[in-house]
Design brief:
By secondary structure, this protein is mainly α. It has helices at about 20-30, 35-45, 50-55, 55-80, 100-115, 120-140, 150-160, 175-195, 205-230, 235-265, 270-275.
């Protein structure tokens, strides 16, 4: 698509300021261009589909197990540690420290590149936890209250917004469709935690949410592992692959929490209409 000029009238966006329209435009670009596979393929110089096909059969099972473990660890962190902050004493939002988190996952990627698939059960939970912390940092920078359980779960769902699942018929489904798919599971899990407390982390509602996110996140993990499956990848390329991995989810987080910030200002319907009316230049 051709990018629309900032001065072009946008149907449904009349309530938004020009500054917020541009923020929404950037958010849409970040949310509708999550081409992780293309970025990784460009880096390693090979089509990711071929690399995925060459992965051993046992790799898929390992990815699934490691993904579940990583998400459970993130959920435990969200429910047990993030909830202790006092909203009354929170500092004013400032820019997230994306570079620090990228450096941290580059370090884990270097270790993973040295040991290959064998390092997956150890590396992925650490890398995913660091990414989750980065997503929370982005959420905070957009004015989210990290002491709120629903916000914590929204941070977790970003890991499910960065790609498709095997059940998706269309790989190009839009942000609001993906968000709607996750919304009901988030609502039920949030309500359950509010009524029964944090000890219900193994309950049905939370498990359903985890399974829904894991089905989508594991696709991205498989692409990451495929890029690392090249013989003699080494620590340097492993660090680079992890850096692309976290950059991908940081962009999705920025887009998602920008939309939520604008919804708090203008209401969900107005923001959704403006979002759908905006045209963006898609990456090739």
């Amino acid at each position: 698509m051709q990018e629309v000029s900032p001065n072009t009238p946008i149907y449904g966006a009349a309530a938004l300021s020009s500054e917020d329209i541009e923020a929404l435009r950037r958010a849409k670009h970040e949310l509708e261009n999550p081409r992780l596979a293309m970025k990784l393929a460009s880096m390693v110089g090979a089509p990711l589909e071929k690399l995925l096909a060459k992965m051993p059969a046992m790799a898929n099972e390992k990815v699934s197990e490691a993904t579940q473990l990583a998400l459970r660890k993130c959920l435990k962190i969200a429910l047990r540690t993030l909830g202790h902050s006092d909203p009354a004493t929170r500092a004013l939002p400032d820019r997230p420290n994306n570079l620090l988190h990228k450096f941290a996952v580059a370090t884990t990627g270097a270790a993973g590149g040295a040991f290959g698939l064998l390092a997956l059960p150890v590396e992925l939970p650490v890398t995913t936890t660091l990414m989750f912390r980065s997503i929370c940092d982005v959420a905070r920078s957009e004015g989210e209250d990290l002491s709120d359980v629903e916000t914590q779960l929204q941070c977790l769902t970003v890991l499910g917004m960065g790609g498709t699942s095997s059940a998706d018929e269309d790989a190009d489904i839009g942000y609001f469709i993906v968000r709607g798919t996750l919304a009901q599971a988030v609502s039920k899990a949030s309500s359950e935690i509010a009524s029964k407390g944090f000890t219900t982390h193994g309950s049905a509602a939370l498990l359903r949410l985890l399974n829904t996110i894991a089905a989508r996140f594991s696709v991205q993990v498989s692409e990451q592992i495929a890029a690392k499956s090249i013989p003699a990848i080494g620590a340097v390329l492993g660090a680079m692959v992890n850096t692309v991995f976290i950059d991908h989810f940081q962009q999705v987080a920025h887009g998602h929490f920008t939309v939520r910030r604008l919804e708090r200002l203008y209401g969900g319907d107005a923001v959704k209409r403006a979002y759908q009316a905006l045209e963006i230049a898609l990456d090739e």
